[in-house]
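Action item from last meeting closed. Structure (564 res):
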């Protein structure tokens, strides 16, 4: 095998990078004002040492080992040590309750667990598990010992890792009931990395990637960990996810790219807009002219003058940003267009855990805002049973599609049919092959007249109303059939000084006015004012089912007229 080109498993990926990039810094984090850094060679040496110790402890190919920690360089080294020995890694969200963590650990049948310091004592009390403190990975190489009672080193035969061996089991649900664990193979990940390389701008050793999303989530793991590792780029981890701290770190490390959820870009957008509105009127007009000029130049020639016209804004992001990647939820059009107008490219993509996860993504040269780009090379995308507008369930086929659900053949057969993975997401393909996401099949609202209403469309339309901070649309069944209901979070600044009754009355008027220009079946029929934040996933997606469930209880108790 040519170690610089042909790879089919994750051990080969890190071995190739160690040979190619050597002492180049791969992973880094600042702790107590001091940088902790690992080169590609450091990682490989630790992977070999830790992998050997795992085997000497009787943990071998086919066994399962969990990792439970916040993002840090040692998380990635532990993961690579596990899978490079043919063991399956089980990444678990450290923010889950201890009961939920134990539930997933027991269901997985793990033999051992790598944990952060704060969980070490808790897991040591679970007598059936071997517990390894992640902090030990940061010791000098010769001092790394996973346990104090490590058996004497012995010569062991090299483990053969096949491309279809399971590398990870990622749990997408079931922290209390029956868990749904997605089994992803070594080649699922490798194929997705290699396919992404052909669509995204190429990374190099000159790039510095800022890791913001949790590594236990496959979006960050593939896009923010494997992709940079393969390319020789440096990955920086940070302790705080406050926007100020993120920008400070971007400036310090001269970040060139990040993969994030839309919420982060929306926060950045609002910060910039607020600062622009504080400027003198004349300066605001001038910036508006620069926006139009840059937009025109980009359209005519493809050249981006944003760094010149908006240099102060670019410096706020460190001055070296090449591109942003957005995924996990829908990116607002106004946010994407604003960043493009001031010289930044946000490349929106689509993925799903069962596909390792990237399915499609925009490129800089062909960035069609509003879409999630074209399918990656080697991945087929079709729309199942499209309606008159071409919308239907998205199904995919390719080497990135999961092996199946762990211990759940029934669920596997329900989604993989005829060689195609049925995503449960709704969308359509345009004439140029760009994919658009319109919602989830289970969220689709079907009225008594048989009309399909897409909650994402409803939210996009009504969220433009001033005074609405956030809105979640869903279907509830009334005596007249399924209708559109909503939970609304008011903008506190807009309604400053008003009581709850006044706020509700004004929002009702605003909704009625906005409803005049859309078909009657798409109009919001009833709503509640939601107190606090909407419940969200790790990727900041609204948990629509939970919001709908809670709202249905409220309507049922107070109105006696609806049910979920």
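Sequence:
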């Amino acid at each position: 095998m040519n170690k610089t080109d042909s790879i089919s498993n994750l051990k080969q990926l890190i071995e190739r990078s160690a040979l190619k990039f050597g002492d180049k810094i791969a992973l880094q984090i600042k702790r107590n004002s001091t940088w902790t850094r690992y080169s590609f060679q450091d990682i490989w040496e630790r992977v070999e040492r830790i992998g050997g110790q795992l085997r000497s402890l009787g943990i071998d190919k086919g066994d399962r080992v969990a990792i439970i920690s916040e993002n840090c360089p040692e998380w990635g080294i532990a993961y690579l040590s596990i899978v490079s020995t043919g063991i399956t890694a089980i990444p678990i969200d450290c923010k889950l309750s201890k009961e939920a963590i134990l539930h997933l650990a027991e269901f997985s049948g793990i033999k051992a667990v790598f944990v952060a310091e704060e969980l070490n004592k808790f897991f040591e009390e679970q007598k059936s598990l071997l517990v390894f403190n992640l902090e030990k990975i940061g010791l000098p190489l010769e001092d790394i010992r996973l346990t104090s009672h490590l058996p004497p080193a012995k010569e062991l035969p090299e483990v053969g890792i096949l491309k279809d061996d399971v590398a990870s089991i990622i749990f997408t649900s079931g922290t209390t009931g029956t868990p749904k664990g997605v089994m992803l193979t070594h080649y699922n990940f490798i194929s997705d990395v290699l396919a992404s390389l052909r669509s995204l701008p190429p990374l190099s050793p000159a790039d510095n990637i800022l890791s913001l999303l949790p590594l236990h989530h496959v979006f960050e793991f593939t896009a923010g960990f494997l992709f940079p590792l393969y390319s020789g780029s440096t990955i920086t981890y940070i302790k705080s996810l406050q926007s100020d701290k993120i920008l400070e770190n971007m400036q310090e490390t001269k970040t060139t790219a990040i993969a994030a959820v839309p919420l982060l870009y929306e926060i950045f957008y609002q910060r910039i807009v607020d600062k622009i509105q504080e400027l003198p009127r004349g300066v605001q007009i001038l910036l508006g002219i620069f926006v139009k000029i840059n937009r025109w130049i980009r359209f005519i020639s493809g050249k981006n003058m944003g760094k010149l016209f908006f240099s102060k804004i670019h410096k706020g992001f460190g001055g070296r940003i090449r591109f942003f990647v957005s995924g996990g939820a829908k990116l607002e059009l106004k946010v994407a267009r604003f960043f493009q107008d001031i010289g930044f490219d946000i490349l929106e993509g689509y993925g799903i855990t069962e596909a390792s996860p990237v399915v499609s993504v925009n490129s800089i040269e062909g960035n069609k805002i509003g879409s999630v780009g074209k399918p990656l090379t080697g991945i087929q995308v079709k729309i199942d049973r499209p309606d008159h507008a071409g919308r239907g369930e998205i199904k995919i086929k390719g080497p990135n599609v999961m092996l199946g659900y762990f211990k759940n053949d029934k669920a596997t057969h329900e989604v993989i049919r005829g060689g195609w993975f049925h995503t449960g997401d709704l969308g359509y393909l345009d004439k140029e092959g760009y994919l658009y996401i319109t919602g989830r099949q289970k969220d689709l609202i079907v009225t008594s007249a048989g009309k399909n209403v897409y909650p994402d469309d409803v939210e996009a339309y009504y969220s433009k109303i001033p005074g609405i901070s956030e809105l979640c649309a869903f279907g509830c069944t009334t005596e007249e059939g399924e209708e559109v209901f909503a939970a609304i979070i008011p903008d506190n600044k807009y309604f400053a000084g008003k009581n709850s009754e006044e706020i509700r009355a004004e929002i009702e008027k605003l909704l009625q006015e906005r409803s005049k220009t859309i078909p009657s079946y798409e109009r919001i029929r009833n709503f509640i004012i939601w107190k606090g934040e909407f419940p969200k996933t790790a990727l900041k997606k609204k948990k629509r089912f939970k919001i709908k469930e809670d709202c249905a209880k409220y309507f049922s108790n107070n109105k006696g007229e609806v049910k979920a």
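Note appended to the action item: The first strand starts at residue 25 and ends at 31.
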